[in-house]
Amino acid sequence: MRKKMTVERHPIHVKSGDKVVVTSGRDKGKVSSVKKVITSENKVIVEGANIITKAQKPQGGNQGGLIKTEAPMDSSKVMLYCPSCEKATRIKYDVIDNKKVRVCKKCGEKLD
């Protein structure tokens, strides 16, 4: 029997709905928003990035064909986009009014 591959989990720095910049791959430099975060696999689905083509068989009344859809990518391949810097940035966490808030490392702007 084969051993099951385990994924080393780390805290994901982006949330669903965040604007991000893709930092590697064929969509490098693309600014888009996060559709979904898959925490168990450390992956994110970014709108319009990492597009794959799937062959779909006709089922029921639906017609088959080639369907283009976004595939999950590793969360380490995206960086949060700061609207005030207009660049990809790393984040730090500050406590403001007893709430943990994400802050841009470059300009200090609140991102939440």
Number of strands: 10
CATH topology: SH3 type barrels
Q: What separation lies between the terminal Cα atoms?
A: 46 Å
Considering DSSP H and I runs of 4 or more, what fraction of the residues is helical? under 10%
For the largest sheet, list the strands in their spatial order.
Answer: 6-3-2-1-7-8
Strand content: 35-45%
Mean pLDDT: 91
- Give the overall form: globular
Specify the structural class.
mainly beta
Query: Regarding CATH, which class?
Result: Mainly Beta
Helix tally equals 0
What is the CATH architecture assignment? Roll
Largest sheet: 6 strands, antiparallel
- Unreliable runs: none
Query: How many structural units, i.e. domains?
Result: 1
Return the string of H and E elements.
EEEEEEEEEE
| Backbone CA Rg | 18 Å
Description:
- This protein has strands spanning 19-22, 31-38, 43-46, 51-56, 65-70, 73-74, 78-82, 87-89, 91-96, 99-104.
- Strand 2 (31-38) and strand 3 form a beta hairpin.
- It starts with 18 loop residues before the first strand and ends in an 8-residue tail after the last strand.
- It has a six-stranded antiparallel sheet with strand order 6-3-2-1-7-8, with no helix packed on it.
- The chain has 112 residues and is mainly β.
- The model has no long low-confidence stretch (mean pLDDT 91).
- The protein has a single domain (19-58, 66-104), classed as SH3 type barrels.
